[in-house]
Amino acid sequence: MSVNEKIISVLKENGIYSFGFVPFSDCSPVNKRLYDECAERGMKSVIIFAIPYKTAQKPKDSYKMSAYARVYDYHKKFSLIFDSLLCELKSTFPEYGFLSYADNSPVNEKTAAALSGIGVIGRNTLLITEKYGSYVFLGSVITDMETESTRTALSVCIGCGRCAAACPNNAIGEKSFDFEKCLSYISQKNVKTDEEAELLKKHGTVWGCDICQQVCPMNEDVSLTDDGYFTDSFIYELSYAFIEAMNDADFHKYPFSWRKKQTILYNISLINSYNDNKKDDS
Questions:
Q1: Where are the beta strands (DSSP E) in 5-44?
Q2: Rounded CA gap, 222 and 239, in Å?
Q3: Stretch 87-93: mean pLDDT, rounded?
């Protein structure tokens, strides 16, 4: 069994089915300190993989909240994955070193994933995988072991333009993305302008925005996750009272907890007020 085959076996044992291998030297740094540390340790390969988070569950409320935010925080999921994955890799290859990352990687994980062949980059800047579409989180394991590269030419989406046409605030350009116009970014701001507040009210947006993903043809008929970590934590009925009643331990299990409660409660109150006014006018 080759090195790659052994690694793939370990990945699949840990529920990872979308992955690729690229040389560390081919990856672009995003954290120079961590990148230099990896270079000094003689790291040679990046094992990049995608974890799906979109479930089959449907919310019963009418609030707009990104699919990733209705389930438990993916950082904690990656901690669980890496605890098991690194233990097995170190047991299989005791002579080599392994470092794991999710979000705080020394390399650009999105570009590494596209280079490895597991997906393409959309105009909305998201990685779109063949198996799970763009509803994925990326993780990476960097090692001083030589692996067989699956590198391909860096590719982009089909360029249909549906995401740009559907974006409520024109954040997606022909060859650019203005994150400050993105409804997801706006929803997470502590302080919003009147115009930004109006956007949230108009679109019923509490946290995040999936509009560009929902209209993407490459997201049609993709595989969903049946991982209990995500399915069992799905928020079916979001409300002001639901968030307000959460204790700190439960609140911090969700990805929106990196902001204090007040941010998400403010967004919900904006929408509630907007909807109440519409009822009064009708």
A1: 18-23
A2: 29
A3: 97
Given a cut of 90, whether residue 172 has pLDDT beyond it is yes
DSSP SS3 for 32: helix
Q: How far apart are the first and last CA of the chain?
A: 70
* Alpha-carbon gap, residue 150 to 21, rounded angstroms: 5
For the CA atoms of 126, 127, 129, 134, the dihedral, rounded to the nearest 10 degrees, stands at: -20
pTM of the complete model: 0.93
Q: Could you identify the residue written with the tokens 């989406």?
A: 157
Task: Give the three-state DSSP class for 42.
Answer: coil
Distance CA 175, CA 179 (A): 13
Higher pLDDT, 4 or 155: 4
Under a CB-based contact definition with an 8 Å cutoff, are residues 18 and 132 in contact?
yes
Q: Residue 163's closest CA among 219, 215, 217? A: 215
In the residue annotation, 232 being an active-site residue is answered as no
Helix (H) or strand (E) run with residue 176 in it = none
Of the CA atoms within 13 Å of residue 182, those in its CB half-sphere come to 24
Given 103, 178, 226, 232, which residue is catalytic? 103
Q: Which helix (H) or strand (E) holds 63?
A: none
pLDDT in tens, 215-253: 999 999 999 999 999 999 999 999 999 999 999 999 999
